[in-house]
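Fold this sequence, please.
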Amino acid sequence: MQSIKSYINDNKDRFLNELIDLLKIPSISADSAYKSDVLKTADAIKISLEKAGCDHVEIYETEGYPIVYGEKIIDKNLPTILVYGHYDVQPPDPLDLWNSPPFDPIIQKTELHPEGAIFARGACDDKGQMYMHVKAMEYMTTNNELPCNVKFMIEGEEEVGSVNLAKFVKANREKLVNDVILISDTGMIAPDVPSITTGLRGLSYVEVEVTGPNRDLHSGLYGGAVANPINVLTKMIASLHDENNHITIPGFYDKVEELSDAERAEMAKAPFSLDAYKKSLDIDAVYGEAGYSTNERNSIRPTLDVNGIWGGYTGEGAKTVIASKAYAKISMRLVPHQEWEEITELFKTHFESIAPEGVKVKVTPHHGGQGYVTPIDSVGYKAASKAYEQTFGKTPIPQRSGGSIPIVSLFEEELKSKTILMGFGLDSDAIHSPNEHFGVWNYLKGIETIPWFYKYFTELSK
């Protein structure tokens, strides 16, 4: 398999151009205005899987956006790897903060990406990382290096909760039978510090609405005499944390797992520079729950954050108005053992209970998912570790992530198989933010590393 480096070198420009073409399609699942673009992307993925060597590829329609399924079964007695990824992307807003158009990809050099990085929405999350698997498949089939069976399941609704994927998985358990699930939708510590994600946080996402008077009011005639929904909402949100940034919702921490001092000490061994972290974000101080380090706050502790807040007049100039309504979108990242539906209900009950007289409160749950922890003594983890050792020359560090991939816990529940998270992005790649990017080196390194996972997983499964 040493020839993979030369194969990548010979096809580098094509690999990049194919990804760039994919990134040009604005497959925004959250906005129905982009429906045709999301469907166009599914078609493009189908064609790519066929060209990569899958013997059978089809698009499965759902009540939302379709799932692209592909497979190559070379011997039913050999192990089967199921690759999951998603082709939908986050909305690019706010557009004025992008240095280049989000769907007009460009390659620029950065301090962390001296070989250049592709700047575009979806570059890292998840089109770039998903497409690494397609190109790794192409290499293995073209060079007769595929050692086992492979199945692909690429969806178009990950960024909006994967509701229809859950239905698809439950209805197609036999089709999706596998020995391990492989996902690249996470990151690694640094280009020279490979890591394998061993834990994900769960998620509860809600929208809240506070209603005061039956119409917008003149702030001079009614100000001070009628509850202002925006003022009320901001006070309610502020009360959700105490002076130690501890979440105040009753029962919120009842099932939170407290890691031992020994486990926390192991986590602390991962390379981390607080000064570099602050510099990269242009902040002069970090913030969070008292008693925990930065890396602990964003991985093993639950959080509650406002993702958007609006109401009243926000246009140019002044309009003296007390809005009838105010809104906010709130996400809670959860740790293993916290049940997202239970947390959603706890939030709803508490938020409604703290509303003052004079307003009405409505809480609308959007979506959620469970956290996940994978063992480091499994065949899949060992194979991933050997693959990184082969291409990076060093053993990867197990690392818990602060992000969420809600369907991972569903996979284990329905398909009874473990998931291996081999991410090649960096924390600085600005996923979900303006100027999202993915290093060219990282992209190609992923293509180089993935076939070694196939090789070692097959060997260790004997």
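Residues 70 and 279 are 43 Å apart (CA to CA). The domain at 202-256+302-369 is CATH 3.30.70.360 (Alpha-Beta Plaits).
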